[in-house]
């Protein structure tokens, strides 16, 4: 079996920056084991697979370690492939996913996604989290992920986590964040439990970051930057029932993978 595959750098307008995702268009779903093996072979933070559903698409995401229910950058990358290579006349797409219905709109070079918010609640500092991060945050929240808040951008950049400790936590991953110097807020995201020690740019994490910083700053429009090695910029808005995430993407490669029938 031959399958087309694209690799796209998301949340950037510059190749070799942002977050790379592999995108595999399908006519019908492959066995979960096969999709997981492809994701592990790609060894990117996410590989996205999609199939037609009426006039739109069903979409699933796999990390090297397992399937996830929501992924921002691989959704952006999938939309980029559809808009630029498969259906260039389209201006919007609806994706049906395990995390809900996601919508993506094309506005010139910008792609805008509407995602559900992921609220968090303030909790006492878990000692395992503090040990894993190596520096005590000023505040900890928890939802789908842990959210650790620090005072400065420099602290976020300087963190050198112990991923073996973070892997033991009872959440999918750990978001760390602080106010930014040139943007509203900065962040990093660690998910060793899913086989991704540090994700370069994490759209889904901003579904928690935006509601949090909306309460702290008293506003709804943000420019955010993820302080990973590759780095990435996300323009965010809190629309209440939806989080609006806007970014760009660039194509790195297009090719064929060969799967035994």
From TrEMBL:
Keyword Isomerase attributed: yes
Organism: bioreactor metagenome
Enzyme Commission code: 5.1.-.-
InterPro entries associated with the record: Phenazine_PhzF-like
Family: Belongs to the PhzF family.
Stated name of the protein: Putative isomerase YddE
Taxonomic path: unclassified sequences, metagenomes, ecological metagenomes
Cross-referenced Pfam families: PhzC-PhzF
GO MF, one example: isomerase activity
Membrane-spanning segments: none
Keyword line: Isomerase
GO cellular component: cytoplasm
């Amino acid at each position: 079996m031959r399958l087309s595959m694209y690799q796209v750098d998301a949340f950037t307008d510059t190749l070799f920056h942002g977050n790379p995702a592999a995108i595999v268009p399908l006519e019908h779903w492959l066995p979960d084991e096969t999709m997981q093996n492809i994701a592990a072979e790609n060894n990117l933070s996410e590989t996205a697979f999609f199939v037609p559903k009426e006039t739109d698409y069903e979409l699933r995401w796999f990390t090297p370690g397992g399937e996830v229910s929501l992924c921002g950058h691989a959704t952006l990358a999938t939309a980029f492939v559809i808009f630029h290579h498969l259906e260039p006349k389209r201006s919007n797409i609806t994706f049906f996913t395990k995390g809900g219905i996601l919508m993506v709109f094309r506005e010139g070079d910008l792609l805008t996604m509407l995602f559900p918010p992921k609220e968090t609640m303030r909790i006492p500092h878990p000692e395992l989290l503090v040990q894993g991060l190596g520096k005590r945050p000023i505040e900890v929240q928890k939802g789908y992920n842990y959210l650790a808040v620090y005072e400065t951008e420099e602290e976020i950049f300087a963190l050198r986590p112990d991923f073996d400790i973070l892997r033991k936590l009872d959440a999918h991953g750990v978001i760390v964040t602080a106010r930014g110097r040139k943007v509203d807020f900065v962040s990093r995201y660690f998910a060793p439990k899913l086989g991704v020690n540090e994700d370069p740019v994490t759209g889904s994490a901003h579904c928690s970051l935006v509601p949090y910083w909306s309460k702290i700053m008293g506003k709804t429009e943000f420019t955010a930057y993820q302080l990973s090695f590759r780095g990435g910029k996300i323009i965010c808005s809190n629309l209440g029932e939806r989080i609006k995430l806007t970014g760009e993407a660039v194509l790195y490669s297009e090719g064929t993978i060969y799967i035994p029938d």
